[in-house]
Amino acid sequence: MATYGTDLVLLATGSDGSGGTWGEFVGWDSGGTPSSEAENFIQGAASFSQTFGNAVTGKSIAFDAGSDISSSIPSGDVVMGWVFLGAATNMYSYASGGHRFGIGASLTNFDMWSISGDDRPPNPYGGWWNVAVNPRVTPDYTGGTGSGSAWRYFGSLIGDTTLGIRAKIARGSPHAVDGMLMGRGEIYCTGTGATFTLMAAQNDLVANRWGCLQDTGGGTFLWKGLMSFGQTATAVTFSASNQTIVIDDTPKTYAAFNKIEFNHVDTNVTLTNISFLAKGTFAPGNLEMLANCTVVMGGCLFNNMGTFIFDSNATITSSTFNTCGLITQGGGTFDACTFDSSTGASTMAVDTLDLISDCIFISDGSNHAIDLGTVATTTAIQCDNYFTGYATSDGATGNEAIQVTIQSPNVLTINVGVGYDTPYVDKTGTGTVTVVSSVDVTVTVKNKAGDLLSDILVAVFATSDYTTAIMNELTVAGVATTGYSGAKPVEVEVRCRKASTADNPRYKNFSSIQTISTSGLSLAVTLLVDPYNNVAEEETP
Question: What is the secondary structure of 285-346 as a DSSP string?
Answer without folding.
Answer: -EEEESS--EEEEES-EEES---EE--TTEEEES-EEES---EE-TT-EEES-EEES-SSSE
